[in-house]
Amino acid sequence: MFMKVKLNRQEIRWIVYDIGNSAFILLVSTILPIYFNSLSSSQGVAQDNYLSYWSYATSISTLAVAVLGPILGTLADYKDQKKKIFLLSALCGALSLACFWIPSTWFSFLVLYIVAKICYSLSLIFYDSMLVDITTDERMDSVSSKGYAWGYIGSCIPFLISLIFVLMYESLGMSINTAMMIAFIINAVWWIVFTLPLAFHYKQKYYIEHQAHPVKDTFVRLYNTLKDARKQKKVFLFLLAFFFFIDGVYTIIDMATAYGTSLGLDTTGLLLALLVTQIVAFPASLIFALLSKKQDTGKLIKICIVAYFCIAVFAIQLDKQWEFWLLAVAVGCFQGGIQALSRSYFAKIIPDNTSGEFFGLFDICGKGASFLGTFLIGFITQLTGKQNLGVAAISIMFLIGLYIFHKVTKME
HSE on the CB side for 189, CA within 13 Å? Predict the structure, then answer.
């Protein structure tokens, strides 16, 4: 497949990291909420509070990244710094994941989860900003889409292996704790192995020369970037639109299993349904890669936003297993497209030598939105006792994002 699409070595190494880190996010979206539910319920946490605590933990991690991301992204733009910071965040995230089996209380587990999620998200800032170094503007949509596509299908391998241990631990003669330990370590090793090719061979093509006072200059440059983003109306409006429409995407990714579990749906069915999401997302992302060569990227992003609005509306009344399966397939059709095309669209409209800074702002909008979405679900659920009302708030944000992004495309 790599040969047919004629990817160069740098593009392949960049795509390979998506295969590695996607294992973590698939685990977070599927097995981890169920594991936390089991841990918390055994310690007397009510079902409604379980969903709220999981939402709050996700919100805290995304808020931390929204603060740290632009600062570290600005530092990463200095010559030869991006790879170092990228590797540090990826390895810390993987090591935290390998230790998930150690905490014995639900609170300490959430703390470790927050640390791992922060490191994972930070690594993606530097990874996304590498796009300008490893490919050309003409190939960005295609390469970005293929990254998500191979990430989706590649993450299924450690997930399936983990699933064997988690679902069949009794038949294998082990405890659930031992099974979970094996699952966490498998996914951590997978993440590390697929990080190394990019870490060893990446060359920072666009950069800023080192300054006498790098920390001070980082904050000065970050301040100037914020001002520049406001002056560059197209960049500013895109970030605003992205803040709203990516909210639903990240919230659905983070909260799907937790939401289904809180509704009392069968956990094995939830896991298999989300595996289907990954499988469907593989060809769907490749299709978007092909469409991006013939169709306007802005138009494709609008289609994805409308589709996600329909998904969010459908999820409001969700209460049956087959409905969750249908939702999983629908998400798989558009998840890779909206993420990949948003990433490449943004990369095309920002300065190449300050990509780290701007992708730090990009991450603020993405993680800030995710913070708002997960917080809304947790808060509204805890306030009303009805999970569906929290999902309703997410659908409105898709409409706001679509309206603003439409204005962005009119500026082209």
Answer: 11
